[in-house]
Specification:
Blueprint (H helix, E strand, L loop, with lengths): L7 H9 L7 H15 L9 H30 L3 E5 L9 H7 L3 H10 L4 H5 L11 H15 L4 E6 L7 E5 L2 E5 L12 E12 L2 E7 L2 E7 L2 E13 L6 E11 L5 H5 L3 H9 L19 H23 L8 H4 E6 L5 H13 L4 H11 E4 L10 E3 H7 L1 H21 L4 H7 L2 E2 L5 E3 H7 L3 E4 L2 H11 L1 H6 L4 E3 L6 H7 L2 H11 L21 H26 L8 E6 L8 H17 L2 H7 L3 E6 L7 H18 L8 E6 L4 H10 L2 E4 L11 H7 L3 E5 L4 H8 L5 E3 L6 H10 L2 H4 L2 H12 L5 H12 L7 H20 L1 H13 L6 H13 L15
Parallel strand pairs: 1-2, 1-10, 2-9, 10-11, 11-15, 15-16, 17-18, 17-20, 18-19, 20-21, 21-22
Antiparallel strand pairs: 3-4, 5-8, 6-7, 8-9, 12-14, 13-14
This protein binds 1-beta-D-glucopyranosylpyrimidine-2,4(1H,3H)-dione.
Length: 840
């Protein structure tokens, strides 16, 4: 028949035209097919975990189809692309998010139920892909969701670590780090690209040759490894667009060194090659803390070098002039970790493509932009010259070249200003000299942004002041945001339902400003009842989680008070637990008959990982756990006070913790938390904030109203004066009496672990309270008192909670990404038509 007359291409097209259907039977058929042919299991002998695997593969099929169509569509329209480069992507579980974004959750729920499985328990089977430490990596994940949803032609680029952030065990009050080999059972969400491999060079030397009267540099020798692409489809919500997160894995190079295999030691030579795999083995578990390890620089360069090759290959697919580059690509640097991409692109343009340096440089900085995420000095990357000279010799030469050209321009504008010159220079004139990656990032970018208004202001007035004076227009603010898909729609299904009912539809999921319309429900008794019911059900869920994971019974009627984030002195979990001790001592001082009248029951929960080498952070965990031991077993206290350390805080348990929280703590020393993003998630889920005027708290207060938050503590402008005061005051006078009493109890060994805990408090007691716990403690106490008063008035609390949630629209990452797209990237949306909605 006519079939035989089709060309091979036409035949394939015809077969592919049968787009996947999503009725119950087709879904079930595809799941069963995967059980049989992908897992090679019999239908009668498979567990809920196999169900998870089969279901995921069936969802993956649907993702891949949209993913391929999207990529083709972008290519066909030759649109400007955004490349979001990040050393971390903290994605969390895929399955539920994918189903919700594809709007297939109901279909699958039904289909799976008939096969004998409850979809929720299937979700629980998935390990968290935890390729990030905390805020920075999670921000990148939220951004991908928003870029897909807003139909922006964007790709994420990162590293496929074999080991994500370690799993945290708490035993006898101490943190233990267990390796997270998350790929153990395979990963249905990725597509291994056997045919996308790029060579990456390390070490070697630069040879100079002369060609047409010009000097040319050739970087050669050293070691080669391969970077292989693994693609992770990212579906948008309420759109067919599905973008890509491309992660690189290192492998031994295909070319081999004849000499080493000829020495006779075959095994030794193989061993050398195997070392290549180690580069992308493990995520560095430091949050906001730089450590100048060579392996880390190798990871960074692998990411950068593979990505730039990929970007250039795509740009060159069409024949065009290099001058079009900044009109076709926008590269966003998520902090300085991928900043070497600036040098790498310039290197390719001048060494391989033979462009003139001035022309190439203009293409580079017009293409790049850079986001700063912290002003903490210990987090700023500075690579030693020797390390760089050895690992990336040509890049070091180019850095000097960039610096020379840049400083010449500065000198013209500010003659005889050596001080300014040395602060702007990429090279820190220390011994040994260092490369300042922040300076390189600013110089190589057309836009630089902070992540909340207060933080962006600090950048231009302190850390990057001199750069700001040079190019004020380069500096912008992009207040962070979080995706309402994962952080409302997925994690708080009941709240999502309430919104959908009240608003008569679910378009709020992509336009959070709609929930503002519920202002008129704030006083509505029925709405308030629904609100309370939802919070209580979420609290129940957390109660079970705590019972199962910590063995502790918590009181459902108590105020759920939560501080979950990485352990860090600037975040002041220490201050929180010192207050808890104070509260405990007050309860003990009250006679039994008065206790319940005087104190409100509270459950205070902490969670978060400490970097393995961060001694003080680990001591803070020990203090929290020691206090918990004492208090939780004190029969005089009963359920008036319970303290819980939630082990292994991660994205999937955040999805349980956050919706159940009534009060969340964001209490960093003013000026030190660049933004914070969990504060946004808590507010969206109706938690009230006790917090300082820091990071995005400031803007949250503007949106929800100060009267709906518990704000306390020194303002950023007070900090310097307070530190001076602290250093000049006798410690016994400096700390308020309530705090001295707490210190004394710890000193006495009341909570055990006396040596360790004494060392911890001695770090702040001896005129060394850098994070100003002593200065803020009094006002923290007052804020806590207000919390209790407000919670006593259930109606008032509910009202405050509602106001927080319905006024949180600004903190949707959709708003953030739209601003990046308009004000930094200059990209437009390209929405691909949904084939199932158009005639085929
Ligand atoms: N941040 O998570 C990190 N790691 C760093 O190395 C530096 C900063 C955090 O980034 C978040 C996203 O911008 C911020 O919300 C948070 O304040 C900051 O500490």
């Amino acid at each position: 028949g006519s079939q035989n007359n089709l060309t091979q291409n036409e035949k394939m097209w015809k077969l592919m035209q049968s787009y996947i259907n999503n009725d119950k039977e087709t879904i079930q058929q595809s799941i069963v097919n995967h059980v049989e042919y992908t897992l090679a299991k019999t239908r009668f002998d498979f567990s809920v975990f196999h169900a998870y695997q089969a279901i995921s593969h069936s969802v993956r099929d649907r993702l891949i189809e949209a993913f391929n169509d999207t990529a083709q569509y972008f290519t066909h329209h030759d649109c400007k692309r955004v490349y979001y480069l990040s050393i971390e992507f903290l994605m969390g579980r895929y399955l539920q998010n994918a189903l919700i974004n594809l709007e297939l959750e109901e279909n699958y729920k039904e289909a799976v139920l008939e096969l004998g499985y409850n979809l929720e328990s299937v979700y629980e089977q998935e390990v968290d892909p935890a390729l990030g430490n905390g805020g920075l990596g999670r921000l990148a994940a939220c951004f991908l969701d928003s870029m897909a949803t807003l139909n922006i032609p964007a790709w994420g680029y990162g590293i496929r670590y074999s080991y994500g952030i370690f799993r945290q065990l708490i035993k006898d009050g101490y943190q233990y780090e267990v390796p997270d080999y998350w790929l153990d059972n395979g990963n249905p969400w990725e597509i291994e690209r056997l045919d996308v491999n790029y060579p990456i060079r390390f070490y070697g030397y630069v040879r100079k040759i002369h060609e047409n009267g010009k000097e040319k540099s050739i970087w050669e020798g050293g070691e080669l490894v391969l970077a292989r692409a693994y693609d992770n489809p990212i579906p948008g919500y309420d759109t067919y667009n599905t973008i890509n997160l491309r992660l690189w894995r290192s492998l031994p190079a295909r070319e081999f060194d004849f000499n080493s295999f000829n020495q006779g030691d075959y095994f030794k030579a193989l061993e050398e090659r195997e070392k290549a795999e180690y580069i992308t083995s493990v995520l560095y578990p430091n949050d906001s803390n730089y450590s100048g390890k060579e392996l880390r620089l190798k990871q960074q360069y692998l990411l950068v070098c593979a990505t730039i090759q990929d970007v250039i290959r795509r740009f060159k697919k069409k024949k065009r002039d290099w001058k079009e580059l900044p009109e076709k690509i926008a590269v966003q640097l998520n902090d300085t970790h991928p900043a070497m991409a600036i040098v790498e692109l310039l290197r390719v343009l001048i060494d391989h493509e033979n462009l003139e340096i001035e022309f190439a440089w203009e293409l580079v900085y017009r293409s790049f932009s850079y986001t700063n995420h912290t002003i903490l000095p210990e987090a700023l990357e500075k690579w030693g010259i020797d390390l760089l000279a050895n690992l990336l010799p040509r890049h070091l030469e180019i850095v000097y070249l960039i610096n020379f050209i840049f400083l010449e321009k500065v000198t013209k504008k500010f003659p005889n200003d050596l001080h300014r010159l040395s602060s702007l220079s990429i090279i820190e004139e220390s011994n040994p000299k260092k490369i300042r990656m922040a300076n390189l990032s600013i110089i190589g970018s057309h836009a630089v942004n902070g992540v909340a208004a207060i933080h962006s202001n600090l950048l231009t007035t302190t850390l990057f002041k001199d750069f700001y004076e040079l190019r004020p227009k380069k500096f912008q603010n992009k207040t962070n945001g979080v995706t309402p898909r994962r952080w409302i729609r997925c994690c708080n299904v009941q709240l999502a339902q309430l919104y959908t009912e009240q608003l008569g539809g679910d378009t709020w999921v992509t336009d959070l400003t709609q929930v503002k319309c519920l202002e008129n429900m704030v006083e509505d008794p029925e709405f308030q009842n629904n609100w309370q019911r939802i919070k209580r059900q979420n609290k129940e869920q957390l109660k079970w989680w705590v019972k199962e994971n910590c063995g502790i019974d918590i009181n459902l009627d108590s105020l759920f008070d939560v501080q979950v984030k990485r352990l860090h002195e600037y975040k002041r979990q220490f201050m929180n637990i010192l207050y808890v001790i104070h509260r405990y001592l007050q309860i003990k001082k009250t006679t039994a008959d008065q206790r319940y009248a005087k104190f409100l029951p509270r459950t205070i929960m902490f969670g978060g990982k400490a970097a393995p080498g961060y001694i003080n952070a680990k001591r803070i965990i020990k203090l929290i756990c020691s206090v918990a031991d004492k208090v939780n077993t004190d029969s005089e206290v009963g359920d008036l006070l319970k303290i819980v350390y939630l082990p292994n805080y991660n994205v999937s348990n955040a999805q349980i913790i956050i919706p159940a929280t009534e009060l969340s703590q964001h209490i960093s020393t003013a000026g030190l938390e660049a933004s914070g993003t969990s504060n946004m998630k808590f507010v969206m889920n109706g938690s009230l904030i006790i917090g300082t005027m820091d990071g995005a708290n400031v803007e949250i207060a503007e949106e929800v109203g100060k009267e709906n938050m518990f704000i306390f503590g020194a303002l950023v402008d007070d900090i310097e004066g307070l530190r001076n005061n602290m250093r000049n005051t006798d410690p016994s006078q400096y700390f308020p009496p309530e705090l001295n009493e707490v210190f004394q109890k710890i000193d006495e060994g009341f909570f055990g672990a006396v040596d360790e805990l004494r060392q911890l408090i001695s770090t702040i007691r001896n005129r060394n309270d850098y994070y100003l716990i002593g200065a803020d403690f009094k006002s923290y106490l007052e804020a806590q008192k207000k919390v209790d008063e407000s919670y006593r008035n259930k109606k008032l609390w509910t009202k405050m909670s509602i106001c927080n949630a319905i006024r949180s629209a600004k903190f949707s990452s959709d708003r953030t990404i739209q601003q990046y797209a308009d004000e930094i990237w200059g990209v437009k949306a390209f929405q691909i038509p949904n084939p199932s909605q158009s005639a085929r």
